[in-house]
Amino acid sequence: MKHICLVASIAFLCFLKPATAAEVQEVVSPGGVIAWLIEEHSIPLISVEYEFTGGSSSDPQGKEGLAYLASGLLNEGAGDLNARAFQKRLDELAIRMSFDADADQMSGSLQTLTDNAEDAFQLLGMALADPSFDQDAVDRVKQQVLAIQRRESQRPRSVAVKAWMASSFEDHPYGRRSKGDEASIIAITADDLHTFTQRHFALDNVIIGVVGDIDAQTLGEFLDLAFADLSEEADVDPIANVVPARDYDVDIIDQDVPQSTVIFGSNGLRRNDPDWYTAIVMNYVLGSGGFASRLTEEVRRKRGLAYGVSTQLVPRDHAGLFIGTVATQNARVGESVQVIRDEIQRMADFGISPQELVDAKTYLTGSYALRFGTSKSAAGQLVGIQRYGLGMNYIDRRNDYIEAVSIEQVNRVAKRLLQTDNLFWVIVGKPEGLPEDMSITPDASQPQSNGSGS
Questions:
Q1: CA dist 191 to 204, 220, 285, Å?
Q2: What is the CATH number of domain 250-447?
Q3: Res 451 pLDDT > 70
Q4: Which fold has domain 19-227?
Q5: What pTM was computed for the model?
């Protein structure tokens, strides 16, 4: 849960030099904590991003939502400071501290003025190594999570995504609800929260990126304030690699709404796949390039079927996904689905044009620097580069990987990934006119529950 303790009066925007000019340093603290650093002294701000391997996929059976609940409680008191005192201290020092959990990671973010950095790192160390998890705070944040569950159960896109994941990963942790359900959230105890953080928050399980107004020596000292009290080794249960699978083409979830929300997808690529950069170029042409993409051209501009349609590659630690989405009038769902299928198959059969390749490379290389537009986003990039083992000079080399992609490679990868027979569709609404060759889940078209699960 992204639970920001303080929105400081200053926007923590720190525009960096061009990405290729950024010098990345590896900093090792006296206590052995490792972080990557980009120094940027033009603004007196420091951003820290970090993550621990093991997110909601590590939740125990029956206590789904544990990682998510923990992320909402880590700044609700720590050490000798209760929730009110801890957040007051953050407020006084204009510190932003937030935590989040996804399927694969527990992550955190810290932004501070340079003058308050020592205190900021100390407070972060307290939150990570000695969180309170006081019962009143646990009860309050549980109610917040349950409220989020209820809202999401009424949002067609949230319902569709959760159904797609549950059907595609039926017997795998990726199929579980990351926020749990009412029963699992109620079942979680303070002891569960302490055990989860103690097992995951360890020096051999953390990746850290820092950008801003701090030098390597000072950062080394401050890293120990935040991380040196963690245990040496994590105790995280291994998660098996998995390929999404399904028995039917379409799962229809009935909701009385004027337009249907459609999620579709299939197996994709993990980040370490040799075809990753080729697939990025291919997907830009197909569905991630906005008005430059084929799907937007065919679905929106030519036919007016939907306001937006897109596809993306989602590399999780233990699976790769190719995911798309569109929302359209119930009466035009069938036509929209058929147009999308036709365009996907057309790219698989005939590939892309030379001009499409040029345009994709131009955008993908030119937009890369935007990922470093703030100190926070740049620190996040440092974390991602470390996570995938891309090397300290990756920022300088990344665009070369894109430029090296050939049209023959794109067309080969399109045939590898884009097979319409492998697509699984989840539709929330009252869709009409679906293609007759699509098999529908036997229990489809049942009324959507108003329960609180998410």
A1: 23, 32, 49
A2: 3.30.830.10
A3: no
A4: Cytochrome Bc1 Complex; Chain A, domain 1 (3.30.830)
A5: 0.92
